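A quick aside before the break. I want you to see a complete sequence-to-structure record at least once, exactly as it would be stored in a machine-readable document. Don't worry about memorizing anything.
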Amino acid sequence: MPEKPVTLDTFDHAILDIVSVQGRIPVTDLARRIGLSKSPTQTRLKRLEAEGIITGYQALLDPIRLGRAHVAFVEVKLTDTRERALADFNRVVQTIPEIEQCHLIAGSFDYLLKVRTSDIVGYRHVLADRLSALPHVASTSTYVAMEAVKEGHF
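That is the input. The structure line, written in tokens, reads:
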């Protein structure tokens, strides 16, 4: 069961907006930008971390410069959607580095995957060798992205 949402005020939201884009911002700069002094800003930041709203910090990598410019979205239909089959699928998906995102979907298919590769040839190999071999896969449909209009954070 999901945890209930936490009540946040405008300062909390301002902190989250800033650190979601600039995770390494010094607390003094963060405090100045939200209009509080350093101490209460630091207290709020630590509370947001302790409450699990901020779950961590990470480096954002440029996939194009890393040779992973090709993006495909893949609809996956399974032959079996009982809990055990979903768990098997979920476990194996975690081991495939080209799968950037995986979402269980309520609709005409079961999963939507975001897959990054170097190019269409690389994607074809991932599809044939890895995606089609995932547990309980009945069929896949691929949609190639032409341009990312918005990515990254909310």
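Two observations worth writing down. The beta strands are 70-78, 99-104, 111-117, 137-144. The two ends are 23 Å apart (CA to CA). We'll return to this after the break.
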